[in-house]
Amino acid sequence: MNLIKNSTYALLLLSLSTLVSCQNDEEAVNPETGIIGSWRLNSGEYTFNNLSPRDYFVQIFNQANLTPTDTQIDQAVAAFEQSLENFGDGTVFEFQEGGNFISRGPDGTGTATWEIRGNNQLIITEGISTLDFIISSLNDSELRLLVEDEETVDLSDIGLSATEPVTIGLTLIFSKQ
């Protein structure tokens, strides 16, 4: 009987340790140390007022009391997705200890400095230019950087005669090298 209890207990401990070790691979890490290293840009995702492009355009059509076809929505979304076609083009961000930053991509190599403010704000500074990102997630294998901008969108491209203030978000998705 003790052998069965001990075997069951050993199996339970082994299962828990395996589960914990798998979870640790995807746990968030401290941004100031976890970001150090090289990160390859894989893809990007747009949001509009925190909605997916499809959901945003459906909302816009509904506000205008229009019932869009799937083709109309697809055309509206396609305009933004085309701008993401070249993501994953080999661009690499390298965050070095001491705050040095190097970007390598098809357009060349650039250097700057980086710093973390608070828990999730990443500031990259090159001369007088500053890029302000939100670290939306960071673990041992993936980095997601969000940049947001307030814009006025001209909706005439999708057949509406209006403009709309919108917060456009672009999440850059990197994998650790």
Shape: elongated
Radius of gyration: 22 Å
Find the structural class using helix and strand composition. Answer: alpha+beta
Order of helices and strands: HHEHHEEEEEEE
Walk across the major sheet and give the strand order.
1-2-3-4-5-6-7-8
- Number of contiguous helices: 4
State the assembly state of the protein chains. Answer: single chain
Named CATH architecture: Beta Barrel
Uncertain stretches: 1-25
Span between termini: 50 Å
Q: Find the count of extended strands (DSSP E, 2+ residues).
A: 8
**Whole-number tally of structural domains:** 1
* CATH fold descriptor: Lipocalin
Give the amount of beta strand, in percent: 35-45%
Q: Major β-sheet, in short?
A: 8 strands, antiparallel, barrel
Mean pLDDT: 81
What is the CATH domain class?
Mainly Beta
The percent range for helix content is 25-40%
